[in-house]
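User: Structure please.
Assistant: Input sequence and predicted structure:
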Amino acid sequence: MNEDGNDMNPYRASGELAGITSLVDAFYANMDRFPEARVIRKMHPEDLTESRKKLTYFLCGVLGGPRLFIEHYGEINLPDFHSQFPIGYDERDAWMYCMQHAIAVQPYEASFKEYLVARLHIPAERIRLVNEMGI
């Protein structure tokens, strides 16, 4: 069982590695496409190849799949890593905007889409909060 009380395995529901890769591709396409995302796009390198891989691997682990990020990059501390960027409400909301739109076009069940938006808001808000507080 996952935290919302059903038997859905988030990694399987996401389409596993191929589905998460599709989600991440849509996310970064949104970051390049939406004017609302300019502020966060500037925080990324021009070539998004490594960023795509890191987010894909991170999401695999977060959703209960293989811990690819840890296998390839080691332990992760999202707030620590993101402390180099000025992340406030606008930046968090721009990230979530791109992710919500990426989730919306995936072939996921509606309940999984809602779960995923709520699940990803948690680290996004934590990064904002830690950055704001300077911890």
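The chain has one domain: 32-133.
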